[in-house]
Geranylgeranyl pyrophosphate synthase
Amino acid sequence: MRTVNGYATSTFTATGIASRHDLKWHSRLRDRVLAAITEFVDARCADALAGGPVDVAEDVLRGLLADGKCLRSTFLYVGWRCGADGTDAAIRAAASLEFLHAFALMQDDVMDESPMRRGRPTAHRAFANWHHANGLSGSSTRFGESAAVLLADLCLVWAEQMLRESGVDAAALDRAWPRYDTMRTELAVGQFADLVNDTATFPSLDAVLDVARRKSGNYTVRRPLEIGATLAGCDERQLSALAGYGSAVGEAFQMRDDLLGVFGSPETTGKPAGDDLAARKATSVVAASYQLANDTQRRRLGALMTGGHLTPADITHWQNLIAETGAVEWIEELIERRLTWALDSLDTADFDGEARDALATMAAACTERVA
Amino acid sequence: MRTVNGYATSTFTATGIASRHDLKWHSRLRDRVLAAITEFVDARCADALAGGPVDVAEDVLRGLLADGKCLRSTFLYVGWRCGADGTDAAIRAAASLEFLHAFALMQDDVMDESPMRRGRPTAHRAFANWHHANGLSGSSTRFGESAAVLLADLCLVWAEQMLRESGVDAAALDRAWPRYDTMRTELAVGQFADLVNDTATFPSLDAVLDVARRKSGNYTVRRPLEIGATLAGCDERQLSALAGYGSAVGEAFQMRDDLLGVFGSPETTGKPAGDDLAARKATSVVAASYQLANDTQRRRLGALMTGGHLTPADITHWQNLIAETGAVEWIEELIERRLTWALDSLDTADFDGEARDALATMAAACTERVA
């Protein structure tokens, strides 16, 4: 783990980096977000789970919430700062998104059958291990998946409860609920699209980017920003500038994540190398490589995408094939272009200097190449 | 399908009966609830789903919402009527619980691997069939389960959105949210307990009833009533009377449902005969039979609970064994006692005649023996 300005960067972004940027403010913000989460877990979740029938549930929840990157809460808070001064209520409102993210992660991991997340067993695996260790009858795998889906449901409920009880005033919340509902709906519908993409062998890059926009992009950057800005009473011009910025950064972030899913090291991603390939996920990188490939390369890519179990050598071969097609350069260029759009979009409205700096820093940190 | 007072009774309760009671009011109420649901689906859900990647999702949703018994919305509305006159906003608030129920049903069916619900394929089966019919790659079963979980998530979001947008005034909603959150949390935590009960061979009747109280009972009767009454501004004395009534009726309802899960006919339940036995669900009836059994009967019950695939003859044998232990009479007595408690509880507060009649009718209709 590298440390920049005393800040453990590998906990920060999907890319694990943020080297050129001063992220002390983010580190402080993240501490406040995590403190708000702990307070809410103690007050609202612990009673429901502790002493319950599945006593490991509280540990799984706390583990998942404790080491997150807090990207979504950061964007909500930065959105808020575009229209108002910082408050504890805004921190709690921002922190509520981490419950929504915990919901999404746990269900995603079940659907993808992912064994690891951030270097630890995923929730469904942790529950399956608990089931096995307690010698209960029935399938541990099945139990683990069901328990993870239920804990995810609870997180979806708690996310909304924490926002409602954040202390942000009622009129502000009323302004934000429609966007909040839109975000939650998009998230689930985007996941539908992901399921279908995963079942088609090679979707087009456009189709993949469309899912990326609706699922990860909007949900990670744009909607959190908009919700924060709406809560703070930003005007239409500011909202529109943030929407443009958010869409662009969200897509770029997803593409960076897709590159890491193919080429990232376990130290950076917390997952096995080439994890997205092993899972045969039809990500932007996979789609781009197929689109750019010549006939010979296409046949090989097709065989890898549809064949049986992949050995480490197959993964390496696949990584090399993707690199040969020029897909990496293409995706890097798309990322770069979006970063420019994002910063241009910010220039279309007035923001105070601190908020503007935070937005620029976050854009770079979320999308930057791993050194 | 029998018809009583022009009302198709088999659509009414889990028990499929309501013969002695005038249910015309319920039939009219249910029509209004279903109309409100259709309006919300048209306005809020159709856009999100139609033209989406899984075009069968809207049909699955409408199918699931269209033929429900509307028990929970009825109890919410009756709770409201304990404190205020009927309004369209109250109907919409009540109807929102049908989305919450759709969420619970879809996820339950995935976790139980149930193939049928109300005589039709369950949501995950419908999605699996769609996947297969469209020739998509990957496991249809897995796809079906993931898609059903996602549609359930959407229903959980829409439930809350429909309540918030119902038109019931903000102060009333603010009074009700804490109970609403409690209900949603109990529902998921109760399901956790169910998972663990399913993995233990024979839990005690007390353990089963505890789950029944938290999961089905509270969620079907007590919390909907309390939420309706809280929205309508009922006083503490009324709320306490409704809580007593709701707990008792909820438990009795669950026990009736458990009897039907063992002895009900497919025409009544919409599921195969002895469905709960085939699934080896540790229901109140199964737990009671084990508690009452002599040593010989216990050995046989144990063999049926833990053995391999059950043939129809095994199911019949199991049904007979349960009957021999006297478990049916015991559960009937417990149901009867709870019905008495429920009506006694209503006498501890003042309710207007119409609301009182509706509560008495619903108590009987939810728990009555199938003729």
